[in-house]
Amino acid sequence: METTTDIIKENKTVPEEAKEKKLEKIKEGPKTISQNPEKRVMTIDVIKKKRTVPKEIHEKRKEFLRMKKLILNSLKEGPKTIPQIAKETSVPDIEITYYLMTLRKFREVITGELDDNDEYFTYELNNNK
Fold first, then answer.
1. What is the chain's pLDDT, residue by residue, as a tens digit (129 residues)?
2. Which of 4, 27, 34, 43 is paired with 11 by a 20 to 30 Å CA distance?
3. Residues 112 and 121: beta-carbon distance below 8 Å
């Protein structure tokens, strides 16, 4: 039996049967583990069950999202320094610094000017994002 590659090399046209078989495969849709329509399980569902996110990682992500929300809500009122954000949110300066630098890395916030005492930079929301 000739393969499609052989046919192309000899500059022949692809037989109609080959075209129909390809169309049938496309119409079948994604492969499933079980061909029984009542028990169809998509491969991605199996992978999701096997690869679960550890609880510790899930908790850290929740904490990050909580801190992100606190900081971004604080900055909605205008540019602020780290101590101002820490005071408003009742979170230690060092934690605010860590999360603020992470938000800065991902361009959620931008660094502004130095404050009046030339001690701290101000941070503000990135409106261009």
1. 556 555 555 555 556 777 777 767 666 665 555 555 556 667 878 887 888 888 999 999 999 999 999 999 999 999 999 999 999 999 999 999 999 999 999 999 999 888 888 889 999 999 876
2. 27
3. yes
Using DSSP's 3-state secondary structure scheme, residue 81 falls into coil
Q: Which of 100, 70, 65, 102 is nearest to 82 (CA)?
A: 100
Side chain identity, residue 114: L
Domain range summary for the chain, segments of one domain joined by +: 4-34+41-49, 55-125
Residue 28's contacts (CB-CB under 8 Å, 6 or more residues apart) are none
